[in-house]
Please model this.
Amino acid sequence: MQLLPNVLAKQAAVEAGAFEAIFVRDGIATEGTHSNLFAVLNGELYTHPANNLILPGVTRDVVLELARELRIPARQEPLSAGDLRHVEELFFTGTTTDVLPVVRVDDFAIGSGKPGPIAGALYEALVARMEAVGAAV
Model:
């Protein structure tokens, strides 16, 4: 797999003053340059299906498991780039990002412009899971 586009997109994001970029393929928001993308729309969690269009993510899998445990409805379905303007929450997951809320994309605010409750709950659950695993080692 060639990751040069990911590196270039990440550099372009940083040069534009952003932390991360969102890849869009055929109008569908797929992932970040080194992270998986999640959105909350109408109270449901969305993330792109795990297939050849996204990088696999261990943290993504754990967050989906935690969402089930917390009874947060989750769908592994594509989300259009246009839908990003209407989501209540948006966040990235990854080994180095954990659960990282996104409060702005380009020139528009996501939800209230502040990290949302679902991302917060998933972050807290992820930290608790990591601490429990660390304590068991």
